[in-house]
Design a protein that fits this description.
- By secondary structure, the protein is α+β, with helices and mostly antiparallel strands.
- The chain is built from six helices and 18 strands.
- Helices cover 36% and strands 32% of the residues.
- Strands 1, 2, 3, 4, 5, 6, 7, 8, 9, 10, 11, 12 and 13 form a 13-stranded mixed β-sheet that branches. Strands 15-18-17 form a three-stranded mixed β-sheet, with helices on one face. Strands 14-16 form a two-stranded antiparallel ribbon.
- It is elongated.
- The protein starts with 5 loop residues before the first helix and ends with a strand.
Length: 330
């Protein structure tokens, strides 16, 4: 509002204005230099008139020396002080009330002060899950995956914690980046689709970008990733590798119920099958670990997958007492 709107200000002070006008005047008083100066001048002016009025009453009192008149005058002065004080307090508190109400509405939607509560989801072996966040972002969780996420995202970022594998479709918001923390690394995005593989029993953390752009952070360094590229971070030697992939969606085919192995060592292959079918493997002969596998298969039974692997390398899988023994064929 403008300083020239004195009539509106007078109505607010007298209590005859609308709520909208009162809110506008309070906002002007609290958020602008002109409004604060106007309020200060008005209060100073009131104080001056009250002081002048008090002097006049005192002179009158001296002339008449009437106790009854003195009591009446004191009551009028006190009433004026109370009214002025009430208006001053109201003028100061009204902006605070408005701001407090606005903050309360924001707090219902966002975690303003970083004290929000986190929920945790664990997807057991042999299962998959899909979760929809409050901002419209979506995550597909693979087997044996743990995800911690806030009940309300922060006002400046949307941060979650992942242990396992997940595919994310993030709603775009340039002012509030979506951050996936995996412990040693993190992925920061504004709006995109990507896959993160960060199982603790793997030596590598792999991030593949399908669409958009992301920033991969590791060892206090940040790297930009473009669609069709994959970052591989080795958790043992702390080295980072950038790989161009033929089809970025191949890494996330698990969410469409496919099993994909690409030069995958037997040790990791067994972990993948253990998560998918929830069955332990025991390697009887360590020589079998020298082989790697390439396989693309729809969601078939465990026996079907093992038969396919036996065609690729000289290994034999035998199920004994709910455990699959892995032998090397000499």
């Amino acid at each position: 509002m403008q300083k020239s709107d004195k009539k509106i200000i007078e109505k607010v002070i007298s209590g005859t204005s609308t709520k909208e006008d009162a809110r506008e005047v309070a906002d002007w008083f609290s958020s602008s230099v002109e409004g604060q100066q106007y309020l200060s001048d008005m209060l100073d002016k009131d104080a001056f008139f009250m002081e002048e009025g008090l002097n006049e009453w005192e002179n009158m009192i001296s002339a008449h020396r009437s106790d009854a008149l003195l009591a009446k005058i004191n009551r009028q002065i006190s009433r004026k002080k109370i009214i002025r004080l009430t208006l001053s307090v109201a003028a100061a508190l009204l902006p605070l009330i408005v701001v407090t109400g606005f903050l309360a509405q924001l707090s219902n939607r966002y975690d303003l002060f970083g004290a929000g509560h986190y929920s945790e989801i664990y997807v057991p072996k042999g299962e998959k899950m899909q979760i929809l966040f409050q901002d419209g972002s979506r995550a597909y969780l693979n087997s044996d995956t743990r995800l911690r996420y806030p009940e309300k995202f922060g006002l400046r970022h949307r941060k979650i914690f992942l242990e396992g594998e997940a595919y994310f479709q993030v709603s775009s918001n340039k002012k509030r980046p979506f951050i996936v923390n995996t412990g040693e690394t993190s992925v920061k995005v504004l709006g995109t689709s990507f896959n993160v593989n960060a199982y603790k029993d793997n030596k590598e953390i792999r991030v593949v970008l399908d669409e958009g752009k992301i920033v991969f952070a590791a060892r206090d360094n940040e790297y930009k990733l473009n669609p069709g590229q994959k970052f591989i971070y080795n958790t043992e030697n702390k080295q980072l590798y950038l790989v161009n992939v033929r089809g970025p969606d191949e890494e996330s085919m698990w969410k469409s119920n496919y099993i994909r192995l690409s030069d995958t060592p037997l040790e990791e292959t067994l972990r993948i099958l253990d998560r998918k079918f929830d069955i332990p493997f025991k390697v009887v002969d360590k020589k079998a670990l020298a082989y790697s596998f390439n396989l693309l298969s729809e969601d078939k039974s465990l026996s079907y997958i093992l038969n396919e692997l036996e065609k690729i390398a000289p290994v034999k899988f035998t199920e004994i007492n709910d455990t699959v023994n892995v032998k090397y064929l000499k």
